[in-house]
Specification:
The protein is mainly alpha-helical and 86 residues long. It contains four helices and no strands.
């Protein structure tokens, strides 16, 4: 949902002759972050040889992730003035 907005913000934040570089760095960071996130979820969930435990681990990890997203969203709203968020 946010990929287009993040790319637009990254490209707008640099000089026009650096737009391709900004877009490439943003794309690389997004892909690397996704791969690391998937690996972390799997590692935190526990061994897949115990399906019930693995499912509980995935649920706990998802709840922790949702809580972190909520904290980040609240911090953004509180700490960044509305004029800078547009």
């Amino acid at each position: 949902m946010l990929t287009t907005a993040v790319v637009a913000a990254a490209v707008a934040a640099v000089a026009p002759d650096r737009a391709g570089l900004a877009s490439g760095v943003n794309n690389t960071a997004r892909q690397a972050g996704g791969a690391i996130g998937i690996a972390a979820f799997g590692a935190l969930a526990g061994p897949p040889t115990d399906p019930a435990g693995f499912t509980r681990g995935i649920h706990a990890t998802a709840l922790a992730t949702a809580a972190l997203f909520a904290v980040a969203a609240i911090a953004t709203i509180v700490l960044i003035p509305a004029t800078q968020r547009r």
